[in-house]
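FAQ: What does the model actually see?

It sees only this:
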Amino acid sequence: MSPTMLNISLIAMGLIPSLAWLYFFSRKDCHPEPKNLLAQTFLMGIIISPVAILLQFSFAQFASTVTGTSQALAQNSSYFFLWAATVEEVIKFYAVRILILKNPEFDEPIDAMIYMITAGLGFAAMENILVMFRIFPDGAQATMATWALRFTGATLLHALSSGLLGYFLAMSWFFRDHKKKLIFIGLIMATIFHFTFNIFLSAFDNRLTGLIYSTSLLMVMAFLVSVLFDKIKERHTKTTIGLATTVSAKAINLLK
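And it is asked to produce this:
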């Protein structure tokens, strides 16, 4: 295989998990968002991801200098995992904030979850691409095994953590006076979930045990995010019906 084709193949492998999950989650929206806006959000997640990488690298350098340990040890500490989770969740939210929140297409509460998940999957796509290029020298078998794990693990993690934050952003649609508080709570919850997943993967000497715990966490969160999707839809429907009823009642009174 030529170097060009190899590079294209590795990039495609990095993109496929995110695109597959994006297709799955986008079907949760009864009123699909414009494909061009979803594409822009996905690309923004990719474009903004180097900022998180830079901040994580800077933290690892600072931690290794302060503690006198190597960067490798610093990157395996719980402090680093917490910092990394926080940075990544903030960066993904920022991608949606600058592109979507003031866009007229952002016209339903559930859109918050869809666009947050889309940005998260764009972020995950860049991570996947970098991992594919890093792991490929270890051989095709290691590359495929890592790809499969990231498909069902890290990529889904980014989608679910972003979806969790998206739920709180959607709730701010109904409680506009508490928007900042809700977004802050959402960032904390998404960060805790993200941090816990990373801890599960690294805290156990037995890699299989860590994989079992992290997979179980993803399954619980996938169920929760699915429920939150339904809750937002239900709340929006009730609000819309209530508003329509109020308007109709006022119109009738005016005609009397």
